[in-house]
């Protein structure tokens, strides 16, 4: 087995071991305490947000418009929605000073996440079969390799590259939720999963202003 084959075989094995380590390693616990003067409210069931590390919201004093209110933006990180979430966060910080803003990952459903963990195993198996299948089949009692194996071995490196690309695409698809969910004080404000689109900045500002605990002091235009 030459060096190129060793690299192509070793890389999927390394990524598979890394996925297994991440799967069975519990995420760090980051408790979130509700802001003062706001009773704790239950979050909608059906998902567990994974809090992300972003710069904390700066408070602007007790007289701030958003003081005592919390807005959560739960979005699909693997869908590259982070830029939109950060833009909305900055807009809300400007419109409602003192508002506590939380950005968190909205994970895909559990069955899709489990299937995403299976993809690297299949990738490794297919690539391993392409590399060493001629020695594996006799060990399991198959003297003559099947026709599909001969087709894969006819273009060995092309088959391994295709397996790698298709597997990565499937893994990315299975890890994505397509969500961009906005909650204010625990109450849903906007759901991309239901609406099928992102909220506009002015639209989101108006929706948030109606949910604040002191909407009568909200004024100004965007």
UniProtKB/TrEMBL annotation:
Protein name: SelT-like protein
GO CC entries: endoplasmic reticulum membrane
GO annotation terms (biological process): cell redox homeostasis
Compositional bias of kind Pro residues: 28-38
Recorded superkingdom: Eukaryota
Span list, region Disordered: 28-49
Keywords: Redox-active center, Signal
Gene Ontology molecular function, alphabetical: thioredoxin-disulfide reductase (NADPH) activity
Signal sequence annotation: 1-20
């Amino acid at each position: 087995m030459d060096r190129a084959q060793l690299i192509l075989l070793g890389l999927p094995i390394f990524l598979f071991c890394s996925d297994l380590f991440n799967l069975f390693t519990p995420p760090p616990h980051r408790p979130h305490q509700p802001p003062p003067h706001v009773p704790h409210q239950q979050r909608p069931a059906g998902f567990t947000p994974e809090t992300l590390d972003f710069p904390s919201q700066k408070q602007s004093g007790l007289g701030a418009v958003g003081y005592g209110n919390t807005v959560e933006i739960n979005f699909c990180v693997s869908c590259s929605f982070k830029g939109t979430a950060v833009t909305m966060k900055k807009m809300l910080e400007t419109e409602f000073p003192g508002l506590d803003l939380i950005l968190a990952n909205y994970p895909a459903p559990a069955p899709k996440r489990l299937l995403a963990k299976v993809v690297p195993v299949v990738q490794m198996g297919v690539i391993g079969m392409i590399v060493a299948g001629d020695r594996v089949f006799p060990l399991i009692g198959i003297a003559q390799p099947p026709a599909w194996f001969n087709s894969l071995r006819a273009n060995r490196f092309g088959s391994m590259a295709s397996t790698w690309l298709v597997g990565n695409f499937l893994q990315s698809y299975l890890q994505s939720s397509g969500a961009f969910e906005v909650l204010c004080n625990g109450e849903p404000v906007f759901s991309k999963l239901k609406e099928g689109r992102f909220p506009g900045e002015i639209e989101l500002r108006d929706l948030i202003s109606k949910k604040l605990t002191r909407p009568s002091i909200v004024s100004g235009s965007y």
